[in-house]
Amino acid sequence: MNPERNRPVSLEDLLRLKQAERPPAEFWGEFDRKLREKQLAALVAKRPWWQRLPRLAPVLVRYRLVLGGSTVAVLALLALPDRSPSSDPAPGSDGLAQVQAVEAVPTAEWAVTGLALAPEVAPALPAVESAPTLGAPALAVAEAGPAEPAATEAVVVDTFPAIVALGGGAVSTVEDEESPSARHIAANLAALRDPDQAVAGRVLVGANGFESRVMPARTKVDPLQQMTPPGESRRSRLLTAMVSTAALETSSRSTERAANRFAEEGVYDQIQRFGARGDRLQVKF
Amino acid sequence: MTDAFRFAPCAGLNFRVAVIEATKVLGKSLVASPERRLEADADLEVVRQVQAGDVAAFDRLIVKYRERVYGVIYNMTANREDAADLTQDTFIKAFQSIHRFGGQSAFFTWLYRIGVNSTLSFLRKARLRAFFSLETLDSEAPVAKEVIAALTDKTGAERDTYVRELQEKLNDAMQKLSIKHRTVVTLFEIDGLSHQEIAEVMECSVGTVRSRLHYAKQLLQSELQPYIRR
Question: Whole-structure pTM over 0.80, yes or no?
């Protein structure tokens, strides 16, 4: 007989049995080996950046004034517009003159062309009228001689004083550089040196206000070829009518099939009466 | 006691602060036994070595606490493979976060908290999956021998079968508890932690711990009634 058989057994005694559920000794060897592997893997594995933020917190707190100040400074620099000297010229400086010159180029070009077409200005502008850019008056004057620039400038100033005022500052800047417009001017001047062309230009401009530029020759077209034969126009009208009736039939079929059956028959009848084969059109009555 | 009353005769906000401080002092004096305090101090010394760069010192902490941590997690999960994995993960997490351990609580409380939280998270994820793989109950262990002898006269294979059946009944009863109730029972009845320590581990109040423990014991008592003898 078991002497402990009559001993009371409580819930705590039963739960204490769970303490006896223990792994065997060899379990811990395997446990340690796996733990070592996991430790190495954890050391090698790169942790995501947000897991490293708590480590930075004490540093950020310690240098909060410095970091805050520098952040505000950077934000202020980023928020301010670009104030560099190259992009923001002072009023009256060379930069402004360049900007004005660039803006004035198309206007001045138009003005010079207009001058060339004006009859009262034409005698005084033999060299100017063919110059397409702003630098043309000054350069052309230099080539033409000392008497002409005065007249040219006088006429231009009388007619377009504002343009001359704008262009005056730009000429000096354009002269310094070998720009495409300057090359164009040089080519025009070389063309003007040709005596035949110069004479023809003066005569034409002075007498009738014609342009001295040589226009490309147009190809001659026979007027009869431009006319549409009456058969063709009729055929196109009939084809257009056929297409429109066919389109109407297609759109109406989906909505009211029964009601359009008669119309479809009519259309079919109408289409059957027209026949277009090759270059012939057949109509049945 | 003297420390607790030192803050008492204050008024207003100071009084409330004093009451909180007194509660802390009182709680610590009641919970922390001299052995526990010595153990906590020794652990803290090792932790300081690890924090100073002596990584090998952490192995001492592993060897010291692996069985206890494994036991807690095993009784929560009732699966030895999961328990082994979770125990390993607990030590790895502890090692990775040891620079944040400041010594406000005992190291083993902190370690238990990591293990319990990992296990709770695991069990919530695998709530529908219940594969039990139980360890063999060592019926010759001093803890079990006495109880088993009180329960049965059987010997040999019959005794082993009886023990196995009892073990499964115990496990079934534990699994009928909610995760938190099971954790409280495990920490208090099996691992022997105090209410205060369980409250620290589970990050709840002592009252909550007592309430959970009471409810869990009621349920277990009804489930294990055939084995309880008064």
Answer: no
Residues of B in contact with A16 (CB under 8 A): 143-144, 147, 189-190
Alpha-carbon dihedral sign for residues B76, B82, B85, B86? negative
For residue B154, give the chain A residue with the closest CA.
A2
Closest-approach residue (CA) in chain B for A35:
B88
- Smallest Cβ–Cβ distance between A9 and the set B67, B74, B229 belongs to B229
A38 with B143: Cβ contact below 8 A:
no
- Alpha-carbon distance of A171 to B179, in angstroms, equals 91
Q: What is the ipTM of this complex?
A: 0.76
pLDDT lower than 70: segments of chain A:
1-6, 47, 81-178, 194-221, 228, 244-272, 274, 276-277, 285
Q: Which of B51, B85, B140, B151 to mutate against chain A (most A CBs within 10 Å)? A: B151
Instruction: At A152, give phi and psi (nearest 5°).
Output: -60, -50
Could you write out the DSSP letters of every residue in A76-132? HHHHSPP--TTTSPPTTSHHHHHHHHHHHHHHHHHHHHHHHH-TTTGGG-TTTTT--
Q: Phi-psi region for residue B53, left (φ > 0), alpha (ψ -120 to 50) or beta?
A: left
Angle at which helix B80-96 crosses helix B57-77, to 10 degrees, equals 140
